[in-house]
Automatic annotation (TrEMBL):
InterPro entries: Beta-grasp_dom_sf, Mopterin_synth/thiamin_S_b, Thi_S, ThiS/MoaD-like. NCBIfam families: thiS (TIGR01683). Pfam families: ThiS. It comes from the Bacteria. This is Sulfur carrier protein ThiS. The gene is thiS.
Length: 69
């Protein structure tokens, strides 16, 4: 199946979960990543049970903090 990851189309086997995708894509700081599928946020607790489908668009997001001096 074809999924789009950060704008790049990639081939993956059927039944791949978000958790597996994070591992296969060598996501930096997986404990701090937020994931969207087709612009919908995925609950961290559901990474292991959320199965991707052909045509899905996945983004790995990191929220950065900052502040005034």
């Amino acid at each position: 199946m074809t999924i789009t990851i950060a704008g790049n189309k990639k081939e993956y086997e059927e039944g791949v979960t978000v958790e597996t995708l994070i591992e296969k894509e060598n996501v930096e700081n997986p404990l701090y990543v937020t994931v969207t599928i087709n612009d919908d946020f995925v609950d961290r607790e559901k990474f292991g049970e959320t199965v991707l489908k052909d045509g899905d668009a996945v983004e790995f997001l990191y929220f950065m903090g900052g502040g005034a001096r």
